[in-house]
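Predict structure. Chain length: 391.
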Amino acid sequence: MNALNRRIAVVQAAYNSMTCVSVVYFVQAFQRFGFDKTQIGVITMLTSIIAASMQPVWGFLCDRTKKIKEIIAGCVVAGGVLYFTLIFFSGGNVFLVTLCAMGVYATFHPMMHLIDSWVAKLIAEGADINYGATRSGGSIAYAIVAACFGVLVTRFGMKIAPFAYALLCSILCIAIAGIPNPGRTVQSTRKVSVGQALGYLLHNRAYLVFAAAYFLNWLSSSPTGTFYSVVIFEMGGNEELVGYGLFIMAMCELPLMIGFNRVRARLKWKTGYILAFSMLAYSLKAFLIGIAPNTVCVLLAGALQGLSFAVFLPASVAYLMEHVDREYLSTGQMLATAVGGSLSGMIASPIAGSVADAIGTQPMLCFFSVFGLLGALLMVGLELTNRKKAA
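Prediction complete.
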C-alpha cells in the first residue's frame, strides 16, 4: 500500500471512529436525557432534513472550488464544537439538544460521502488508490472503537465522548493535509454552475433510478440504525452490548470491503445487480432484527452488515463513476446521499418512532424491511431494461 493509500486509510479510520463516538451514540444520549421514542424520531427527522439540505451544497462547493480537504476539515471541527455543546451545555433541554444535533448533521455527518467522492475523483484522475482497501481502514478502526467505547460509556457516561471526538479530529486533520485536492486535469478545472450540475443529473436516467432505489433502501436501513440500540435496551442490554454489536458489524465488513474488486471481477455482475444484492441484505437484516427473540440473535443479525453496507458502499461509488461525469461527481454523490439517505430518514424516522410506540420496535422494523426489497427490485428492473435495449 503506497503512501497515498495509507493516508486515505487513516482519514477513513479517524472519520469512522468519530462517527462511532458521536452520531452512533446520539440515540443513547437522547434516551439518557429522558426523551421518548416519538421525540427521538422527530429529532432524527429534523437532523435528516438539515443533512439533506446541506449535502448537495457541500458537494457543489467541492465541484466548484476543488477545495475538498479544506471543507472537510472545517466541517469536522465545527461538528466537534457542537457536540461539546450538546453533551455539556444543553442541560438536556430538548430544543437545545435538537439544534446541536442538527448542527452536527449539517457539518460533520455529510463528510463520509464527501470523502468517498474525493477518493473517486482522485481515482478518475489516475491516482493509484484501492478504494476497498482504504475504506477497510475505517471498518477496522470502527470495530475497535465500538467495542472499547461501549464499555467506557457504560462505566463513565457520555461525557467522555466529545473528548474522544476531539482527539480523533486532530488525527484526521493531520492526515488530510498530506492528500491532494482533485483538479489536476483540464476537464476537472472547468467551473461548474448549479444549473449545469442539476440539469445534467436530472437528465441522467441511470442516476435517477439509483437515487430512487437508494431512497427506498434507506427506508429500511435508517430505522434499523436508529432503533438498533433501542431493541437491545428493550431486551435488557446496555451501551456495552451495543458496542459489541457495532464491533461485530464492523468486523463483518472487512472481508468484502477489502476484496470487493476481486469478488466483483470474478462474479462479472453488473454494478446494478451488485447494488440490488446489497439492498436485499439490508432488507433481511432489518427483518431478522425485527423477529430476533434475544440480544444474541440481534447481534448475529448484525453480521449481515458485511453483505449490505460493505457491498453497497463500494458498489455505489463504482456505479456513480460509471454513470456520472467526473466534473459532477461530488454533486452527484452528495445529492444522491441527500435524497437516498437523508430524505428517506426525514420521512422514515418520525413514522418509525410513532409506529414503534404504537406496536413495538421490532414489528416496526419488520414493516420497514419491505422497502429494501423494493429498492433491489428497482435496480434489477433498470438492468433488465438496459439489457433488453442493448439486445
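Summary: The two ends are 41 Å apart (CA to CA).
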